[in-house]
Write a structure and sequence with these properties.
Layout (H helix, E strand, L loop, with lengths): L7 E7 L6 E8 L3 H9 L8 E8 L2 H11 L11 E3 L2 H10 L3 E2 L1 H11 L2 H14 L15 E4 L5 E6 L2 E4 L2 E3 L1 H9 L13 E3 L2 E2 H14 L1
Antiparallel strand pairs: 1-2, 1-3, 2-4, 3-5, 6-7, 6-10, 7-8, 8-9, 10-11
Helix pairs in contact: 1-4
C-alpha cells in the first residue's frame, strides 16, 4: 500500500522514433490511461516506452524541478523533451525514495496501442541495436532474473534463452506468460525483469551507451 495521499505520477518516457530524447512529464493516477493515449495521438509514429515512473506527493513541483535541472538540454521551451540519458533523470527521482510504478505505466501504454503499433516500435528498436544477448551484457548462464514485482523468476540458460516454469524459451515469451498475454503479442521484456538490482533494460542501455560513446 502506498503512503502517498495524492496519487500523482511523474514519468520519464523514451521513443524509438526519437533516439536520444527523453520526455519528462506528470499526470494523476486517475488520468494515466487518458494521458498515455493522448501522447500517442499527437503525431508520433510508434508508442512511447516508459523508462521510469513513480508516485510523488506533488508531481507539478517535482516535474518543474526536473525541467529546471535539465533546462540546458531542452529541445523546445514549450515541449517536455530533453536531449539527455534517461538514467540521469531516474537517478534523481530515486533519491526521493519514490513509489516505483514503471510497470503499471508501461502496461497502460501497451494496452492503448494495437499489436501493429507495438510491432512497429519493436522493429525500430531492432533496427537501431541488435537483439539482446545475455552473455554479451555480462549476464552469464545460471543467472536468475526476477520479475519486477517479485512474482516470478527465470534462469538464463543460453545467450538468448531462459528457463521458465521448466521450459526453455525467450525472455519475451516468459514475460507474456507472466502477464497472461497471447504468444504473438509484441512487447519489450527487458523493463519487466531485474538482475543484481537493475532492470535488464537498464543493463542493455548502459552497455550500448558505452559502445556509442567509444
Amino acid at each position: 500500500m502506498s503512503n502517498y495521499p495524492a496519487l500523482q505520477i511523474v514519468y520519464v518516457l523514451t521513443n524509438p522514433a526519437m533516439p536520444g530524447l527523453v520526455k519528462i512529464g506528470s499526470t494523476t493516477q486517475e488520468e494515466v490511461d487518458i494521458r498515455m493515449k493522448q501522447l500517442f495521438s499527437t503525431g508520433v509514429p510508434v508508442p512511447f516506452d516508459c523508462a521510469f515512473a513513480c508516485r510523488v506527493t506533488n508531481a507539478a513541483t517535482v516535474e518543474k524541478a526536473l525541467h529546471h535541472a535539465f533546462g540546458n538540454t531542452r529541445i523546445n521551451p514549450t515541449r517536455e523533451f530533453f536531449r539527455i540519458e534517461p538514467e540521469r533523470v531516474i537517478s534523481i527521482l530515486k533519491l526521493l525514495h519514490v513509489d516505483d510504478v514503471t510497470a503499471e505505466i508501461e502496461q497502460s501504454i501497451e494496452s492503448d496501442a494495437t499489436q501493429a503499433d507495438l510491432q512497429a516500435a519493436e522493429n525500430l528498436k531492432q533496427a537501431r541495436r541488435p537483439r539482446m544477448d545475455f552473455a554479451e551484457l555480462g549476464i552469464p548462464n545460471g543467472s536468475v532474473l526476477v520479475y519486477k514485482d517479485g512474482s516470478a523468476q527465470a534462469t538464463v540458460v543460453a545467450p538468448k534463452l531462459v528457463l521458465f516454469n521448466g521450459s526453455e524459451c525467450s525472455l519475451t515469451s516468459a514475460t507474456r506468460k507472466v502477464m497472461g498475454l497471447a504468444e504473438d503479442y509484441p512487447l519489450q521484456p527487458s523493463p519487466h525483469w531485474t538482475f543484481n538490482g537493475k532492470t535488464v533494460k537498464e543493463i542493455y542501455e548502459d552497455f550500448y551507451a558505452g559502445l556509442d560513446e567509444s
